[in-house]
Amino acid sequence: MSQKRDPIGVMDSGVGGISTLRDMIRELPDERFIYFGDMANAPYGTKSTEEVIACVRNVVDQLTAQRIKALVIACNTATGAAAAVLRGELSIPVVGMEPALKPAARMRKNGSVLVLATPLTLHQEKFENLMKQYGEGAVKVPCPGLMELVEADDREGARRYLTELFERYPADHVDAVVLGCTHYVFLKDMFREMLPERIAITDGNEGTARQLRRVLDRENLLNDEGPGSVTLQTSGGESAMALMKKLLNS
Ligand code: DGL
Fold this sequence. Notes:
- The protein is α/β, with parallel strands linked by helices.
- It has helices spanning 16-27, 49-64, 76-89, 101-107, 119-123, 125-134, 146-151, 155-168, 188-194, 205-218, 238-248, and strands at 8-12, 32-37, 70-73, 94-95, 112-117, 138-142, 174-179, 200-202, 229-234.
- A 5-stranded parallel β-sheet has the order 4-3-1-2-9, with helices on both faces. Strands 6-5-7-8 form a 4-stranded parallel β-sheet, with helices on both faces.
- Helix 1 (16-27) links the parallel strand 1 and strand 2.
- Helix 1 (16-27) packs across helix 10 (205-218) and helix 2 (49-64) packs across helix 3 (76-89).
- The chain is globular, with a radius of gyration of 17 Å.
- The N and C termini lie far apart (36 Å).
- It binds D-glutamic acid (DGL).
């Protein structure tokens, strides 16, 4: 039986989910979080669904061995590939993510909504279902290579990548941009700088933090006593750990 004081496991292929973790800490400061960045197997977004399921299972085994009371898949790609499978296998709640197309669709006028995500996210059935509901005027923009620039902390490389991208998708007829990969949230300031003020930029982080609170509350697993804490773990090396720490405190 899970206890209120047990930790929450959070995972991503790398540092991207740290952007989600920051919002979860703000929303639930009394919780204990264990964050796992699977840098040894990154990127997930250019792998097959089966390969991603295998990677995620491996991380989840390491987290469940630490008696987590809930799992947050802080990765759009891993959620699309593995969340349904994991929900069938685990006895703890699993909170996942999807590109924030729904709020972006509400802000759409006559232009388009660009959905930036990994190739695998945009190919999955889960995303197709989202497109059927909220996809009017939405354009899929796969961004292979962009998460790697975030992992390398290469802001200049990312700026060049986005400059080129917005040459292909000029902002004139765009109403909203969806950051459909948790890594891209670390570039939000750059997107804001490059895009006219009228263009909305959405991501799923705050919604995920609120969803985690709802799920814990529903399961009577909210830790109301604290103290809150964060433990960082990775399958990568020292530089991966250093970047996780830097971004967590940024
Ligand atoms: N951060 C991940 C996401 O939200 C994926 C990055 C990757 O491994 O390709 O989709």
